[in-house]
Write a structure and sequence with these properties.
The chain has 341 residues and is of the alpha+beta class. It has 2 domains: 190 residues, Fructose-1,6-Bisphosphatase, Chain A, domain 1, CATH 3.30.540.10; 129 residues, D-Maltodextrin-Binding Protein, domain 2. The chain is 30% helix and 20% strand. The chain is built from 9 helices and 13 strands. The strands form 2 sheets. Strands 2-1-3-4-5-6-7-8 form an 8-stranded mixed β-sheet, sandwiched between helices. A hairpin with a 3-residue loop joins strand 5 and strand 6. Helix 1 packs antiparallel against helix 2, helix 2 packs antiparallel against helix 4 and helix 6 packs across helix 9. It is globular, with a radius of gyration of 20 Å. The N and C termini lie far apart (59 Å). About 3% of the residues have low confidence. The protein binds 2,5-anhydro-1,6-di-O-phosphono-D-mannitol and magnesium ion. The site of magnesium ion has 4 residues, from strand 3.
């Protein structure tokens, strides 16, 4: 069987976007390259104790960087040099990074991203990821990007995806015509098509939520969890609980196997924890393209939410369609208000 690399695949699909004249192709290619560089560093993370702590000098006398800062810088510099991207909003930066060199100011696209999500898992060798979205800018070409270029609804995404640095490294993305996954073959240094046209099961038997926060959850979530744990043969219950604490890894597993991931609002996080622009929206586009669903638990589609600020948080219910519908019913019946503790 012949191998299709990420670059070949992206170029093959270029015809899907005649208006973009290869621009999206170049952007996605640059993301793929930065992902490989970050992957190399992620794989070396365990050696930090031997080679030097973050914040100290390494053996070459260079300042060691924390991996999330490193990933942020790599993606920013790769996208800046693509010539297609005029600015980036990232979890690592409070304000947008609007490029001011001539090449980048002529770029038609902006990118929102979480360069290294789940970073509390780095030290313990657990999967982490990068999440990204691509939008067309609203402001005029030739000038620096403006904040309104970034504050767009998820329905305006042209492409979205993630890289998972796990037992193998994968890039999964969509341009609105299905979802495709590529596994990095370290021997040739290429992402190769391994998961064409991913579809998520309409129902599953996995539920993913940080149950340590149980007492802080709204009654609707508590009752839904009880439902997940009840014995009822025909529906496959009790479901299995799986929670890694890295959104990318939890999402990826549930996408392939079928399941529900919930990060609700709670007494600790009255608006939820996950960020709309660079965590919820990209995952929402991917899951919908795979046949699943993403809502805020109150019947609102994530991608329809009009963002008000860059780092806005939203409650997040994402996964298999039937499971989301069921959870929404519990939220409606038992309430979505977080308790006062
Ligand atoms: P981060 O961006 O600070 O890494 O936080 C986001 C992460 C997600 O990857 C994950 O789904 C969630 O936080 C886990 O949160 P918690 O530890 O509260 O369960
Ligand atoms: Mg994050």
């Amino acid at each position: 069987m012949s191998v299709v690399t990420l670059n070949e695949f992206i170029i093959e699909r270029q015809a899907d976007f005649p208006y973009a004249k290869g621009e999206l192709t170049r952007l996605l290619t640059h993301i793929g390259v930065a992902a490989k560089v970050v992957n190399r560093e992620v794989n070396k993370a365990g050696l930090v104790d031997i080679l030097g702590e973050a914040g100290s000098d390494n053996i070459q006398g260079e300042q060691q960087k924390k991996l999330d800062v490193y990933a942020d810088e790599k993606f920013i510099s790769s996208l800046r040099s693509s010539g297609e991207c005029c600015g980036i909003a990232s979890e690592e930066n409070e304000n947008v990074v609007a490029f001011d060199d001539e090449l980048a100011k002529n770029g038609k696209y902006i990118v929102t991203m979480d360069p290294l999500d789940g970073s509390s898992n780095i030290d313990v060798n657990v999967s982490i990821g990068t999440i990204f979205s691509i939008y067309k800018r609203i402001s005029s070409i030739g000038h620096k990007a403006k904040i309104e270029d970034f504050i767009q609804e998820g329905t305006k995404q042209l492409a979205a995806g993630y890289i998972i640095y796990g037992s193998s490294t994968m890039m999964v993305y969509t341009t609105g015509r299905g979802v495709n996954g590529f596994t990095l073959d370290p021997s040739i240094g290429e992402f190769c098509l391994s998961h064409p046209d991913i579809k998520t099961p309409v129902s599953g038997s996995l539920y993913s939520i940080n149950e340590g926060n149980y007492i802080k959850f709204p009654e609707g979530v508590k009752q839904y969890l009880k439902y997940c744990q009840e014995i009822d043969g025909p529906t496959g219950r009790p479901y299995t609980s799986r929670y890694i604490g890295s959104l990318v890894a939890d999402f990826h597993r549930n996408l392939l196997k079928g399941g529900i991931f919930i990060y609700p609002k709670s007494a600790g996080y009255p608006s939820g924890k996950l960020r709309l622009l660079y965590e919820c929206n990209p995952m929402a586009m991917l899951v919908e393209q795979a046949g699943g669903k993403a809502t805020d638990g109150r019947g609102n589609r994530i991608m329809d939410i009009k963002p008000k600020s860059l780092h806005q948080r939203e409650p997040f219910f994402v996964g298999s369609r039937n499971m989301i519908d069921k959870a929404e019913k519990f939220m409606l019946k038992y309430g979505h208000k977080e308790p006062k503790l």
